[in-house]
Records
---
Amino acid sequence: MPIKSAFTTTIDHVSILDVNANFDEKLGAGLIPDGDLVRLYEHMCVCRHLDEVAFKLQRSGRMGTFPQNMGQEAASMGAAYALDKTDWLVPCYRENAGLFWRGLPMEMILLHWMGDERGNAIPRELYCMPLAIPIGTQLLHATGLAWAAKYRGEKRLACTFFGDGATSEGDFHEAMNFAANLDIPVIFFCQNNFWAISVPGKIQCSAPTIAQRAVAYGMDTIQCDGNDIFSVVYCVRKAAALAREKGRPFFIEAVTYRLGDHTTADDARRYRDQAEVDAWKTRDPILRIRKFLTTRGLWDDAKEAALAERAQRDVAAAVERAESIPPPDRNDFFNNMYATIPPDLALQRDTMQTHGIGQDPSQIEGAVIELPAKTSH
Amino acid sequence: MAGVKQPDDKSYFILPDLGEGVHEAELIKWRVRVGDVVKEHQTLAEMETDKALVEVSSPWNGVIGELCGNAGDTILVGSVLVRYAAKRAAVTGAPKTVSAPVKQPAAPVAAAKIETKADTTEDAGTVVGNVSGSLGVPSRFARQPEHESVSSGPNKSLATPAVRRIAKELGVNIQQVRGTGRGGRVTASDLQAVSQGAADVARETTASRVVIAQPITHSATNNNTITTSPAAISVAYPSVNREGVKECIPFRGIRRKIAQALDLSVKTAVHFTVVDTADVTKLDRKRKEYAAALGTKLSMLPFVMLAVCKALRKHPTLNANVDDANEEILIKEPIHLGCAVDTDHGLMVPVLRNAHQKNVGELATLVKELAESCKERTVARENLVGGTFTMSNVGSYGGAFATPIINYPEVAILAVGRAREQVLTKDGTFYAGLVLPLSLSCDHRIVDGAEGAKFLNTVLGFLENPDRLLV
């Protein structure tokens, strides 16, 4: 018997607005209306400015740590733009651009990194999950959220964001397997920025693309230029259509690059060549849109100057709001995990200010505590 | 806010955690000078943590009043990095609030921080205005403790519930404990120090301790004992009477580094000291012969160095470093002899490398060159590290015996006293001889008492028999 092919596939790569701002009219026409593109650009610039300010805040002790978003704004924001406002955004920690586009107030991100839990109390109507710091855990949450939406008969899908490093985690594979086999409308949006902190992509994925990992699960997949917002919007729309119409998951590999350090605790100069960083700086998504807008007569230096001023003002105001928040109430500690607080936690809460934490009040000698009249929730 | 509380009055800037869990950073370069007007986010300094080279930025606008550290210094997170000059307040009729001097008295940094905190919380919003922690001595005297607790209310001390519980168990009033933890928090060890401190005082007044193993650095001549207080960081310090202060010297820079090194040594190594005298009458004659032959002045020191090298070959355990982190004793092959040198800026210990390969003339020249380079501060960094055994020539300043502090992680140190002519006896007759006092401190964890005594005896043997020494 001759050997036959068991399976063949190709993975498409989409690029619409290239590095030199050449635009593919066939694919890109009408994808993003001019007015929207200007607003997207403005949001990206504000996000970039916040990046710079937050970095300085950390360096002067006003913030615990901060991961800069620099370089990945188009990927994040393009995805958020292409989705419906009621689709779940399930971010990792480098998703400021997408979250701001969705409407998350900037000070919440600042609060989060200042170590204030109230930064995670995201308004329900935004359909954003809190930032996921552990690598890859949010993929399972997204799969669960989309599964729940499907179960309830909602037309909502979930889009989760993660880096190339997360695709080496067990959680990634579990989420992918679940989503593909149970027909769950979730978009896996991988921002391949080539570096899992200091580990280069090529030593943790032997395949030439990350996208082909999806093929193994029988999932549709596509790769795009993640620094080109048009490509990102194109791919996410395609994925969203499949999810909504067929209830199928989709995997997108957005090829991008983090121009900054992993976080403020990192020094990328120790492991990355400056030449590589410089090369990627020429592919900066913000420069590319600006060039495009300028050639179309939609942008000029005066607008740029006004925007810079606005960004400065808005970010300074957000910092002010974040820093002037009153100290949290110590009971907040107990209030956000359960709808109804379990008795053992209630006991801890109520005895927290005595010398016998978690001890039954009756056993504490001489303790003066005021118990609330029977906890009711 | 990142573990440290910056002052509300913006009078100084505390070095924050620059990474995640970083507790110190080396100052690489200042990017501002005293008097510079700086803007919020402007870079103040380049610093290197164990993870990254970072630019530290100013959290607010201001004028630089003082830079607390020099390039090369390691700055602890939580200590003051920069002080800002008082703002030129346009308040008329309130000159006292304007004059806040920039210089902080030499109080330890942690203490300065807490006092300032108390000051600001107390004064915020009062008619006095914002009195910062940089106030001089008089106002501090004016502030009575009772007054403090009345105005700032209970629970002023920062501490975790667990620590408060320990305080309760130990019967320590936590409000009176000076916290050394992050942001001035009272820690469990602060409480232990306070309660033990009380016990120690009681013990010391009743019992006289017959232990040689306690810290005395440079020299001890007869009753004239010089002790240095180790720069312990983690104890609760008593408040110091500031009356009659003539000069207030910031406890920083080399002085502080010396203190830290000694402190670490005393806290880690278990010191014991053996002393003896060598009859160097014959050796002194040889010394003079050598000096005449070489045509230079020649001290006794290079001869003692030679004797030490030869003795170390017979007692290799003393030529070692102890690696406490890895729980290993590293016996060294080459002898890199540290030589304590007194300089205008403090004690330095340059290392004479491969001393075992040198003769007396070379040793004399090299030790002289090293001492000079230390005094001129041109000594290369590699000549300040890597010692395997150290010698301290206390005799050049007049001391006889000492209890020298080991240059940790080395395991032994020899102090050489001043040679004196004395009446000696031999075979029932008197003679005038030259006597050299020697004091050897060893880390008892590594070197047994017998081994230390034998080593010293071997050194003595070489010194008293120059023919064996100078073969």
---
Amino acid sequence: MKERKMNYKVIDGVAYDEHGDALFLEENKKDYTLLVPTMLPIHFALLKQMLKEFGYSVELLESKGMEVAQTGLKYVHNDTCYPATLVIGQLMDAVLSGKYDTHKIALVISQTGGGCRASNYLFLLKKALKKAGLSYIPVLSFNFSGLDTQPGFRFTIPQFYNLAKCLLYGDLLMLLKNQCLPYEVNKGEADRLVQFWVEKLSNEFKDKKNLKYKHVKANFEPIVESFSKIELNVVPKPKVGIVGEIFVKYSPLGNNDLEDFLYREGAEVYVPGLLDFMLYCIYNNVIDYDFYGMKKIKAVVSKLIYKFLLKKEQDIIDAVKKSGKFVPPSLFDDTIKSRKGYISKGVKMGEGWLLTAEMIELVERGFGNIICTQPFGCLPNHIVGKGMMKEIRERNPEANIIAIDYDASASKINQENRIKLMLSNAKEKLLENKED
Amino acid sequence: MNLNKQIFKNSGTYLGIDVGSTTVKLALFKDNELIYHSYNRHLSMIKSKVLEELKKIKPLIEDDDVYISFSGSSGLGVANELGLPFVQEVFATSELVKTLEKDTNVVVELGGEDAKVIFFDNGTDERMNGTCAGGTGAFIDQMSTLMNVNTAELDELSLKSEKIYPIASRCGVFAKTDIQPLLNQGARKEDIAASIYQAIVNQTISGLAQGRKIEGKVMFLGGPLHFLKGLRRQFKETLNLDDEHAIFPEYAPISVAIGSAIFASKQRSHYKINELIEKVKSIDTSKKVTNTLEPLFVDEKEYEEFCVRHSKATVEEIDVKNYTGKAYLGIDCGSTTTKLVLLSEDDKILYSYYSSNKGNPVEIIKEQLETIYSIIEDKIQIAGSVVTGYGEELIKKAFSVDEGFVETLAHYTAAKHFNPNVDYILDIGGQDIKCFKIRKNSIDSINLNEACSSGCGSFIETFAKSLGYDIKEFSTLGIFAKKPVDLGSRCTVFMNSSVKQAQKDGADVGDISAGLSISVVKNAIYKVIREASASALGKNIIVQGGTFLNDSVLRAFERELGRNVIRPVISGLMGAFGCALRAKNLGIEKSTIISYDDLKRFTHTSKMVRCNGCGNHCNLTINLFNDGNRFISGNQCEKGASLGETHADMLQIPNMFKYKRDKFEALFKTERIEGRKTIGIPMSLGMYELAVFWKTLFEELGFNTELSGFTTKKLYAKGQYTIPSDTVCYPAKVMHGHIIELLERKVDAIFYPSLTYNVDEKIGDNNYNCPVVAYYSELLRSNLDELKEVEYLYPYLNINSAKELEKGLYKSLSKIAKIDKKQLKKAIKTAQIAYEKWKFDIRYEGKKALEFAKETGRYALILAGRPYHIDPEISHGIDKLVTSLGFVVLSEDSVSNLAQAKNLNVLNQWTFHARMYNAAKFASENDGVELVQLVSFGCGIDAITSDEMRSIMENDNKLYTQIKIDEITNLGAVKIRLRSLKGVLDERKKNEL
């Protein structure tokens, strides 16, 4: 891993490290705009606001359509996974749009770390900038593993914690929205409520007091309550869970507006929260020690953080339960347990065992209809997704799983036709249950 | 058609309409009787076809209440737009089976572009092909076009087959790369036809059944399985089904339509036929396509200017009647087309020919030579002849051509004629895309398309035909298309789906034609050339190859680059033209080419045999000519072709792949000691690194070991049906076969550790294994039920710490025997030393090989891949091919300690790949050392490494060559690449001197 020393050269007002990578310095914070590809609209809106409080000016990229993928294909090796194509395509599209002063922007990209290709996204983005002759634009890595840190883009532990709070809010809002939207009597009510809360919470962030966890926790119940007031007409609808590679699972850009399609087809959607993925990443540090005796201190610290965050997840569960109206998320400790007998915790590249665990958990929680989304040719998914389906189906006859590949040229009609097949089965089952 | 069954509970009028990707099927029932059914191709004109059919049935059901349902991939759009019921086609099929044939266990249904398998035992389990799977009706269409027959003729042929060739069963493009060389080598069409069907069967079994056996009563549905008897036969044979268990119902082609009718009968709403006709009439066919691009030409005037500009790059032609003297013949025997050029002393064209080789290039060239001889009479003498292309060797032998010329150099020679300062040549032919960058009068880098992205000429042609147009008409429609459809830029299978979508959205043929041209161009630029801007290609760009004869493609290319390029008028003839120029430069007086008299007696027959020269058992095609000459092809080495000097020389050239293989061969030999438990070790993936470690360790601990050995096709087939993900790399897929093999050899346990971290050689930022190597153990456990028969050990181990290793192994091995900790500790130490010695030997031998190369003035070529690439079934004998060209073969691990790659533009975090970077660094730093990267299809990691490897090599002015390998066994394309490399190296050397 590259070590960043603080001696750097300045050329044309841009600081470069000894590898020639453009640096983002503390002082750049004041007049640079960070461009961030959106993955989850609710969460990212909150994160943007939080970063603003840290002194960053952030712009979320929400562009869609073929151009994004086309630009990506231009700048990234075409066999690279689809999320890289999209994220880099979206960033390059923005950079080249002429909308921004390219000397006053920095690009943010997430990096998971670990043995998956995704650890290389950052490097692919740098290559793309080089290809376009824009190497002076700093690239900032957002990760939990301490990879490639930039001097002006480092977070203190309290700051990380504050970002995690955005995930808590985001997960809760997403969960409630998903459970109301298919049944709401007055169309659009759930969405509007989400907007209300995003705005209200964003405003709250401006006052440090409101960032105290006590305050955050106190918000959970009113949020749940506000959603429970939405008038619903609960008719039986097929319940569909979405799992998969993190980007195509969440991002409408990545999965061709999958959630929207499912709503239109008359389904209820369940998407496991982003906090789970964060907990999974943290928990993997514990596994390195448990399995291989590596990095003891990191493991101990990670375990503490894990336990700490788990309590917060429990608070959300309690708040949702209290309403008696909504299905709460499951505690991550239970998620870990659910994979037992199927796959080892040792499988920790990409979404790893979490993906398998989420499928099993969904089946157990009544969301037996599952779409497993993956970028075409996703390496970990061969094992944790497609590789586990046979056994999950055999042991849970009610499981109705379909794997959908996403790719720059995979046609929507093929994807939708396969999803329709899954939905036909789901609807038939629903009828059978009704007749019983 | 009589269904002999009461299908519906109530009498009524039920209509099922199945609109698939290529056909419309109707089934109409009235009072439980099938009163009308039809099966028609719709040629993308869905609305009018459906309307036509509805009008036909109108008199039959004038006043009835009609219950209707649509089905099929294109039916979805229609149903949605009209607000009529829709049933997903697989679901419709299961409705049908549940009603008509209750005791069916499995349904196999092939459609135009979809393939499905439905299992009925223990609840319905439905499978559809994924995005990367073309083994369907459209695939058969493509293959027939390639063979120049129609589908019925293909079927006829297949019934007369004698043998089956292995043809990649994954997707159409792959199969094509297998079939084309077979055709060129003169394999019997009958056998190829049956082999194509067999590929579809294999595809269905491995891609769809995914671990579930197709057995019991199996019903075969869909058009292809109804009409094609040969395909049926192949399915029956492979699945081992007798007539009682293989059901081919008469209603197969309309099965989904019947299923939809059943679904319709359960609906509440009904319509009068007139109402339906009005509804369908109301379908808005005006453009809805959202992803459209700029038109290729604004108006006719722009097109005219374009034509004038390009007509300037020309070669003068003279009438052969007015010429006497010497002439030079160039032949380009390409994969799909054959080209000839006869050149005068002053470089004017006397005669030229361009045509599809119709699967039999020998016959075509014979005819052409006859023509040439008849027109040149005695006043022109052929003073030299040169041949290039796929069929180079065959043609050279058949007609005693003076010389074979490497394709790339032939094209460069031709391009130089048009512009001596040419910077870049792009050639898009029927199957290949070739790009060469020229620097300092020499080819600087070569890019060729991968087997997986052959979005080339033959693709557009096949598409044109499937839409009912010839290629000329089709491309003309594209030129003035107003709104070309954006179809993406990936492999042809994906494009098929994109086209389907565009058709559904109402795009017209011209827009699709233009869209396809743009896609082909984008594929070439972004996927093959891998450049983001035109400036990287240089100023003087020459484009050629048959595909550029298509003005839409040429225009799209100029548009995409934002720069004008030169297209010689003889664009399609450039290879042959280059050969003719070369023939002139040979400086010989009289060509050895077959005389007119001998030509009249010329005959050519071919037969197939299996070579027994070595364990590869290649399928050889022996071409016999009337003069007793013969030409053998299909061999992976030179052994089959000749047992003469070449082979003897070859044996003496060091080959690290062979050295390593011999080492493994010795390792595979094990003896069992009675009373000891036997641990099986499956040989693929990471085992090619650590097998010696594990074997030593287990034997030290008092176990017998059993290693599954090298992969064979047969071994692979044993586990094929348990592979859950058909896009995973081949080395992973064969693992299933290795496990079954070990079980057959009766072992007590199978050991395949899960290693997140690979051996830490301190040469990268981290030392991961790739996700597939690391965790395939988990997938095997969950997908191979047979593994329950033995103790399957797949512990998570830390290979880099003796202490942790001991802990992990103790826990795992204690499951099968009592382990003494002290003994285990000692065994680990012994195993570590054995492993280190193993690596030392490889490096030592590598050094020796390098010295040999230096002393004998040969090039050393590093075949840089992963350790498991030495498996002969994985690398298909590429190393032998390399030695036969005179190169010393090195492996990446034999030199990875000799250089250290620094400051990479990627995260260097996988051990095997870190070795490749070092090997590339070593090659780039040393004269006489070259590198070819082996990439397994589906290896996602290599999407990262290949660009980086290229940049390491090219930074030091070295050629980078990549070879993609898969199940494909034919080495034709590989040979061209390697020969080009050799040709360029030789030329560079010559220039330096």
---
Amino acid sequence: MAARNAGVDFDEAWIKNVYINLPAIKRRAETLGTRRGVKKQWQAAWQLRAVTCIDLTTLAGDDTPTNVSRLCYKAAHPVRRDLLKAMGMESAGITTGAVCVYPSRVADCKKAMSSLQAKINIASVATGFPTGQTPLKMRLAEIREAVQDGATEIDIVINRTMAIGGDWKGVYDEVRLMKEACGEAHMKTILATGELGSMVNVYRASMVCMMAGADFIKTSTGKEGVNATLPVSLVMLRAIRDYYEWTKFKVGFKPAGGIRTAKDACTWLVLMKEELGDEWTKPDLFRIGASSLLGDIERQLFHHVTGRYAAPWEVPMA
Amino acid sequence: MAATSAQSGASSSVRSIFETLSYGPVPDADNVAKAWLDDHCRQFGHFINGSWYKPEAGSQSQTQNPSTGEVLASVLEASEDDVNKAVTAAKEAFTSWSSLTPHVRARYLYSVARHVQKHQQLVSVMETLDSGRVMRESRDIEVPLVVRSVYHYAGWADVRDAEFKGFKPYGVVAVLPSFTRPLVSLTQRLCAALATGNTVVVCPSPTTPLSALLLVDICREAGLPAGVVNVVTDGRERDGMRRLVAHAHVDKVAFAGTTQVGRMLRQLVAGTGKSMSLELSGKSAMIVFENSDLDSVVEGVVDNIWSNQCQVNTAGSRLLVHEPVAERLARKLRQRLETVKVGDSLDKLSDIGALTCDWMPNVIEQFVDEARQEGAQIYQAAAGQSNRGWFYPPTLVVGAQAASRIVTEDFLGPVVALIPFRTAKEAIALANNSAYAMAASVWTESVTLAFEVGSLLQAGTVWINCHNVSDAAAGVGGGRLSGSGRTGGKRGVLEYMQLSSATPVKPNTVNVNMQTFGSSVAPRPSAPIPGAGDEKPAGEKNLSPYYDDTPITPPSTPTPRGEQPDFPRNGKRPDGQYSRPVQNAKGQVMGHVAEASRKDVRNAVEAAQKAVASWSKRAGHNRAQILFYLAENLQLRREELSAQLEALTGQAEGQGLQEVDLAIGRLFYWGAYCDKYGGTVQEVPFSGSVSEVNEAVGVIGIACPEACPLLGFVSLFAAAISRGNAVIAVPSEKYPLPALDLYQIFDTSDLPGGVVNILTGNSDHLTRFLCEHEDVQAVWYFGSAEGSKFVEYASAENMKRTWVNYGQERDFTDPVQGQGEEFLFHSTQPKTLWVPMGEIFAN
């Protein structure tokens, strides 16, 4: 396990003279999925790896202990046992990377996990998710409460008002405070890339969050117009690479929003493997924020094992 | 699957892959392609007049799969008789094909496009099997480009008559596709030829003949009439290709391949009147500035060299990097090398497949070894797993100097040399310091810098922040040793057409001794020895070559008549200090002109090169002003010059005036064109802007026609300088005086020194040295059939562009022959500039 990112002092030089060429980024993104691919048992194994990287998520106004505990059960047993057995994976301890809920539902998760006797990370979004448009005092209090209730990971949103206005030191200072509030809990910083207006801003936001001590940088809340896209992610990964080169801290990456198919999940793993290397394909440095993805993966695994395409009712719902 | 079984059971279990997240093989099936080969019993004949033709006797050569060495099929070597049959079929088909309406030809091409589309996968696999290009590229880049090209040219077929008024097809076109990129290079040439009404004989390389054979099979299926496309296959020695090119009924040759072979072919057809389009080797540069997206540059290098085996002539094998970021980029490239995969070309995971020819890995290794010995650091990815095929690992060379062979010489392989530069000016100098001028790319986020560098690079294509992007609607083609002629775009279509008034050149019966032609000056033209006290005609002149703007003192020796000679202020004395008499039609000596020599050619080229740098960059409006002023000043001396013309040539009264007036008109005409041929926007499926800019060719040597001593000279030099070229003109050998008279007019019309240089003397002698001068970019020759042959032959050495008349008279008084598109074509060198756009994203 790599040392956690301790952060560094704000250094404006790291976000000056940033050059990003979006058409070139798009060309790379377009060919990632055509240059690499996996078939047969490789495909199944990669899909299982993707399962372990999922932050199984529900973020809805009508979340109640009922669906949250169902979600927790699915996180602990993401793939049918008979399918795992057929692939020789029943003892591999396959669970999702975490469950991800609103702060008020963290306690429900904690309760469900202990009754399941599962040690699965509980992630909570916080800081006025998804917009962050609440007073800083309250945003920080939200983090502390979630941690107190048992969250081991906090997904914060950055202050887009400051980012768009170019007040990067302001963004840094806030995230620094949020990091303190997280304490032992891992901090994922959501950049809301779809609201930043340019790839240069995406890079700056990535770098500022890492300087402020982010354990993960995350693309989006899932609530913006544009969420996790490959071009945006390439820019964020290159920022992670630069930060690692300069500080030797490894920061994780979490795309979220719009990742729904098993094929997509494999492409994201290809992206991680090709751009950052094998280390960044494991749940301690890679997560996928998703809710319906798991169902598709399970159906694909069903096909791999049985040779037949699954009906929706053949995989248990989350 | 061989590759799968090679994996041990344990390492390919789901459990172990889950732990390592390793890749497995993802091979594409080759069964359909092999079934097609089997349909032909893996033995191909020639395709002549709509059917397969297998002569009884005849040697064969085999084509192999570069990934495995497996023999795919055998093809015949075309004999004299085979070639004759194919050309005859094409010639016969030409009569009917060329008389179809454009729309009917378009429908045929459209049908071909539909059929190629139907067989996309088969075509992709075949190209990969035969050439070694990885499947991803065949499937995602090459074949879509082929389909796109056929549709695009089907469109040109339809609008041919509207877009190319006054032009007609050549007849039979020999298409010789590239051996490393056979499918695309064939399709684009084939379609351009067919769309314009030509018929075609293809002679593919024996290394990669299958795509041509498959394509012609698809054309047959699409219903293309018999004889319109024929294929003759060839042996390793390429005798078939030579026979085809030399065939008397082949009217045009379109070749893609190496400079060496291109030069040989040009010498072979010299003087025969065959048109040539040559796309040859390249050693292109990628220029990376400090304010560029370095990670995208890395992917640019991968796209352009480490994916397609660097086996295209536009590949940027010279990576010029701004000093402040050179080390950082080298580090990023070394890191990236670790994930570049070399392997079987049919495997979806291979970034680099096998090289096309078995000898290639050794050649590349020699270059790399030499660089290593010279102290360069070599970084390579892991080599291909297969030990059967012809692989070479992607390679980064750091520390090779600009003079190293690995930097200067073209060899086909996935090797890039990183060379640092200090300033933008130095980057441009380094990029242009090459025998080739195929393509280049500029990487910077500064639009101001990108456009400036793009305009200063000598290359047929310049990409900004990308490399090796292409499309049927965008022209491709090089300068210098990279050849001449374009593929793609409107200009690429024009390559396959000639003036409607053109008449066929007589078969090549001219014999020219290339060693001796023009090498020594012919004996001094004999002039009647004037009797004692004989009066010379009035206005005798002693004239010097004119190639500089340094004022020199007129010679102190007065003319016999004691009057001040009409000596131009800025003429130069000839190096040899000889002069020759000029006689009029009656044999009277009208004056003496300088006998220019090889050294005068050298001096004139120096002056012209100096002048062209700024002349070509002047605004068209400014050049127009000067040409209009020239016309105006010529107008003032209209009577005087016409009287002189009549006295010289003995033409009927009034004809001199007519010639002068036409010359004035022509100066106005070319003045008008100074700012009306800048280029076009290319309509390509690409987010951004693609334009073809018509740049100046450079320094053009012009041997003017004997007839129309004033109008011929004016028509040619004015066209050239109108488009920003500088000129070294050799005026009519017999009647040089009218051209020399323009000296004074040049002076009084603000024409900068060195833009037009005039060398008088023996035309063949001067032509020889113009052709043999490496820094003359083009030679136009309007003289004898012998001279035309010599010009084409000698110009093959440095691949300069030529425009010759094959000894046929050209009527410069006729506006169709004396001005127009053909002149613009020869006065310009296109450059395609690709500028991607798209900074805006999301909100």
